[in-house]
Structure formats: C-alpha cells, structure tokens
From TrEMBL:
Major location category of this protein: membrane
Composition-biased stretches (Polar residues): 60-70
Region (Disordered): 32-93
Protein known as: Type II secretion system F family protein
Membrane protein topology class: Multi-pass membrane protein
Membrane-spanning intervals of the chain: 201-227, 247-274, 405-433
Classification via InterPro entries: GspF/PilC, T2SS_GspF_dom, T2SS_GspF_sf
GO cellular component, as recorded: plasma membrane
Organism of origin: Luteolibacter pohnpeiensis
Length: 440
C-alpha cells in the first residue's frame, strides 16, 4: 500500500507532520480529516512511488495488440465522462461575486467552521448546496486549491477578485492564529454593516438628488429663457441700464451657454487625470494622507482603522499569537499606506523591546484614550480584553460619525440650492424693479 507524507494543521493551530498508509490520495485526505487534521501538503513518498511503479510493471499482462485494443475499447469510463462534464460546467478564470454573495459565503463558512468542521469539508458542503449559485463554483475552486496545500487566503486571491486585499489579509491572519472562524464572522459583520450603511446613504440621498435635479432645471430655465427676456426688456426701455449684479449674472449665463461643451470636456479630462494620478503607485501614499485630512470623511476613515486594528489584534493575541506577529498581520490588513507606515514604526519599536502603549505614544498617530486602555491591559496582563473593549468603544464613535455625516447631507443640499436659486431670483427681481422705477 502506498505511503503518503503529510504536513497538516491540528485543531489547536499547531503544525504536525508524519506518514500514513492509504490506497490513493483521496483516501489519505479522508484519513487526515477523520483525525481532525487540515492538510497543508500531501505527497506520496519517493520509495513508495517507486515500489508502486515496479508492482505495476510486474503485474502487467502480456497480450497481443488486438486483445489489448479490444479490452481498452470495451472498458467503461463513466467516471471520466462525469468528471469532464463537471469540469466543463466550471468557468475558467476568476469569478466575480456580488457583495451580498461575499457576505453569504463568509457567513456560511464561518458558521461551519465554528461548528467544528474542517475547512475542506466545509467548502465541500457549500459546493453541494443547490441555492448558492456562483458560490458553488467559488467553493469548488477554493477547495481544489486548498487540497493542493495552498493557503486559504492565497486561494481566495486566485479564485475571485471580489474578496479584496483586506479580506484576504484578514483571512491570512485568521489562519496564522487558528481563529479563522472568528475572523470570518467579524468580517461578515463588517460587510453587512457596510452594505446597510450604503443602503441608508442611498435612501438619504434620494430627496437631495431630486432637489439638485430641480435646482439644475430651474437654473437652465433662468439662463436660457428668463435672463435673455430680462435683458431685452431692459435694453428696450428708454434710459434703461442693467444693474451691475444683473450684468454679472447675464455674463455668467452667456459664458455657460457658449462654452458648456468645453467645460464638460475639461471636467471629464480632469476626472480621468485625477484617477490616473491616484492609481499610480508612486502617488498612493500622498492620496492616502490626503484622505485622512478630508473634512468628516477623514474622521470616518481613521475611526474605521482603529476598529479594524483593535478587533484584529484582539483576535490574534487572544488566540495565543505573539504580539509582534499580531502587529505584522494587522499591518498587512491595513489598506491606507499612511496608517500602515505608522504601524511600521510601532512594529520597529516593539521589536526593540518597547511596550506597545509606549510605542504608540512615540508614534503620535493614536488617540490617548486608545493608548490608556491598552496600557491598562498591559498592566493587568489582559491585553486582548482591553483591545476588544477599545474596539467596541471606537465602533460606537464610528457609528456616531456616520450618523453625523448623514444628518448634515440634507441641510447642506437645501442651503446650497436655496442660495443658488435665491441669488438668481433676487438679482432678476432687483433688475425688474429698477427698470419699473425708471419708467415711472
């Protein structure tokens, strides 16, 4: 019987190696699964493979060409046909998923892992479900890659771009700490919160969008109809003189009527140039710093970083990962390059033996409240609990910031539209009254 050498992860996160006897690779994988081991690599040993080849050579029957041809043609191949049909139903290349499908995949997988299922059987179970749609294809592809000994996070990157760098980095952190189910559950909560926020934002923007469209329509009527009529009226009046404010408005309307195509082209060109600039690798650090300084939006980005950093650190440290390694994985899960640079400074100082709270103080990028809570955790020896409490507090602050932004959208749009339309109406009415007074 062939002998397979394996390297696998145990349920407690430790790495174990050894050899098992099995008829073939699938049986070896089933044996490891029964032992509660998640295979990282599984190969038939060289001596066993050579012995298998020698046995096959000795047992090969001697026959003439006609008999062998007849036997080959009469041998049924149902499994090969089924496998071909199955492979043909699987599309090639990366599979794109909707956000709702990513959330469903994450929730399903985290629930199965929390229930004690190993990664490969959990993916197999999702692959067998009838109502999951594209997730069946994604589960199949990920399971095939994982069975070859590739990390789950690497498989995610290869199979679908919809998971994103943040998702894959957090999955890698979960694999390293043995808390993949917890990390996935928190990621599902984050994705659901993000989807709910976008839905609320769309609902909050519906009425302002109607106001903006109405304001644009009224402005077009002013520019194309009312202002030319007012100009003709004033010019036809004996001694009529256009007021300065009205003259400015008329000049602006004439400029827009003449050059609107050029202005649209300039705006489109500027948008394309800006997108190319911010997507350039050399300019991404500068753009990330600029995002942190934007009014309101910068505070939301910073608060979200604190919540993600603290939650990831709490999970990693709570599952026994060393503090320095937990910091490195949390840095890899941070997308903003400016904040990642701050974490690099903290990692360098912690690597030199400095306490985490002291390193954060020297960095200057973390708020005093966060540092104080981490310092208490260091003194009590329960830093994971302090990190989790800090994450909960900053999550509440993030929710307040988002509610504040959504509450400011409506008044801001109303003030802008009222100022624009009111100014034009005031200038026109003033010009009309001046003309009437001169006629009197």
């Amino acid at each position: 019987m062939p002998v397979f050498a394996y390297k696998a992860l145990a349920t407690n996160g430790s790495v174990t190696t050894g050899e098992i006897d099995a008829a073939d690779r699938p049986e070896a994988l089933r044996t490891l699964d029964k032992r509660g081991l998640q295979p990282v690599s599984l190969r038939e040993s060289a001596s066993s493979a050579a012995a298998t080849v020698a046995r096959k050579g000795k047992s090969k029957p001697q026959s003439n060409g006609k008999n062998s041809e007849t036997a080959a043609s009469s041998k049924p191949k149902p499994n090969a046909k089924a496998k071909v049909e199955e492979d043909e139903s699987i599309p090639d290349g990366p599979v794109k998923l909707k956000r709702s499908e990513v959330v469903l995949f994450t929730e399903e997988l985290s629930d199965m892992l929390s229930a004690g299922l190993q990664l490969e059987p959990a993916l197999k179970s999702m692959e067998s479900r009838q109502e999951l749609g594209n997730l069946k294809v994604v589960s199949f592809k990920i399971r095939q890659i994982v069975r070859d000994g590739i990390n789950f996070s690497t498989a995610l990157k290869k199979v679908s771009p919809s998971f994103g760098p943040l998702y894959c980095s957090l999955a890698a952190a979960g694999e390293a700490s043995g808390a993949l189910d917890t990390i996935l559950k928190r990621q599902a909560h984050y994705l659901k919160t993000l989807a709910e926020l976008q839905a609320r934002l769309i609902l909050a923007l519906i009425y302002p969008a109607f106001l903006v469209l109405a304001g644009i329509g009224v402005s077009i009527v002013f520019v194309t109809t009312l202002i030319p009529q007012l100009t003709s009226l004033i010019q036809s009046t004996p001694g009529g003189k256009i007021p300065l404010a009205a003259a400015i408005l008329i000049g602006i309307s004439g400029f827009l009527a003449k050059w609107w195509i050029v202005m649209i082209l300039v705006i489109v060109a500027a948008t394309i140039f800006f997108k190319a600039w911010k997507d350039n690798e050399a300019n991404k650090p500068t753009w990330d710093r600029m995002k942190l300084r934007l009014p309101l939006i910068g505070a939301v980005i910073t608060s979200r970083f604190y919540v993600q950093f603290l939650e990831t650190m709490a999970n990693l440290v709570g599952n026994g990962l060393p503090l320095l390694r937990a910091l490195e994985l949390s840095r890899d899960a941070t997308q903003n390059r400016s904040l990642r640079a701050e974490l690099n400074r903290v990692i360098d100082q912690v690597g030199d033996g400095r306490a985490l709270s002291k390193a954060m103080i020297r960095s200057g990028a973390f708020p005093p409240l966060l540092i104080d809570m981490i310092s208490v955790g260091e003194q009590t020896g329960k830093i994971d609990q302090s990190l989790r409490r800090s994450a909960e507090r900053f999550d509440k602050e993030l929710d307040k910031d988002l509610q504040r932004i959504m509450a400011l959208i409506m008044p801001s749009v109303l003030i802008l539209m009222a100022g624009l339309i009111g100014t034009m109406a005031y200038l026109m009415i003033t010009a009309i009254f001046n003309t009437i007074s001169k006629l009197g």
